[in-house]
Amino acid sequence: MRAFIYAWLAATLLSGIPSTLYAWFTGQDVAAATRAAAAMAPVSGELLIDAAIVHASVSLFWATLLWFTLPRRHMMAGAIAAAALIGIVDLRLIAPRFFPEVAALEFWPQMADHLMWGLCFGAALLRCRR
Hints:
The protein has one domain (2-129). By secondary structure, the protein is an all-alpha fold. The chain is 81% helix and 0% strand. The protein has seven helices and no strands. The protein has helices at 2-14, 17-25, 32-40, 47-69, 75-98, 100-103, 107-129.
């Protein structure tokens, strides 16, 4: 269980780095993805709290699914491949139907965040299992 929590936290906390750096270096709004996440479930009315709740919850959902389905062999490749598939499902299927703020974000920086999530999740699991 400790390995799962460590992997989930690593993936959750580090996965936004690619899109944030992209926004910063291209002069775009670095808070756009935060606002989009908060708009998915405006629970408290506070931007950062709502975004953190949504991001952590969605990440926990996918982490739980991968925890039970990732193969023991080739775990890193499996986590990254699963994250790519999750990115397509999230960004091309779910977001356009239910979360227009997320769908309005640029695809590739958000896909990079998904891949980073898979990389962090897989790397943390591998580290814990060694």
